[in-house]
Fold this sequence. Notes:
single chain, alpha/beta, seven-stranded parallel sheet, 7 strands, disordered N terminus
Amino acid sequence: MKDVRVVSTWTDLTRDSAVYLLFTFSAIKVSHFIYRCFQSSETSSFSMETHPEALRRERILSSKLYFNVPESKVSIIYSSAYDISFMGIEKLHPFDSTKWRRVCKFLVSDGFLEEKSIVEPLEASNSDLLVVHSLNYLNSLKSSATVARITEVPPVAFFPNFLVQQKVLSPFRKQVGGTILAAKLAVERGWAINVGGGFHHCTAERGGGFCAFADISLCIHFAFLRLSISRVMIIDLDAHQGNGHETDLGDDSRVYILDMYNPEIYPYDYSARRFIDQKVEVRSGTSTDEYLRKLDKALEVAFLNFQPEMVVYNAGTDILDGDPLGLLKISPDGITSRDEKVFRVAREREVPVVMLTSGGYMKSNARVIADSIENLSRQGLIKTQLDSAST
């Protein structure tokens, strides 16, 4: 009996040891698994924080803003959602927030464009905007007071933010979508005009001057990745300095900035001026002839210094004689000649050109923009009417 008890005790000890060893082994395995998961999560988080380019790439590649545009559409981009109407308070700012609609209306009524052939873009999402903007900046727009400062319309600060998002920021996001899509269309067809956009005062971290989102910077980052573009020239001929894209892109060797602006007016951004590759100052009162002479020389120098694969042309019409903010004296015909010069120098070199309408603070701006686009069509630099076989 003693031997049996010994064997029984030994068997119990062996079984208990086996269970203990199995439990210990399993515990070690589970611990290793949890550690690997934690390490993976920590590494992923670390990777996202320390490799913003990877996150930017992911956002660009997953964006829906690029889509195939049928041949039945021309390379003119506009949406009725561009126009800002906010209980009339938009009229407190000199910017004509319905000029985009009126430009298209003139083009259609003049027989240069069919309404059904206009391309409607998608609205940029938060993920799209985060390609350039920080989350802190986008969160700051949840304050109506911040939007009021950016749009320079103080009463906006007193409205609920959901209304501000819908009535003010949503139209801006739609125009951003138009600018980004315009690059794709330009590369495919040689040119594209976003009847809105050109928010050249907005940087990744700060809006201002009626510019809430950095559509030019966003457009170029999308083009770098999705269109395999490696050299972009920004030709900024708005009366105001383009301090937004200069701050965002001025130290990027892939981008060449030609900025022709009045140094005596907003934004007085001397820090951003350091990033301008080719600075052409046109002071208050500059005449049409003088302006066009300077432009001819500037374009010649720019294309000698840099060979772009795409041109982003910020075609503000606040250089127009009588504009209360631009303070230059360029005639409507001068603006038509200006736009033709830019398109001709790009098209002759077979460089795709994206045009944005940007600033302009008189009711006559819409008619001037439409006349200029019609001239581009007459000159064969763009094609606003489809062949009957394409319709």
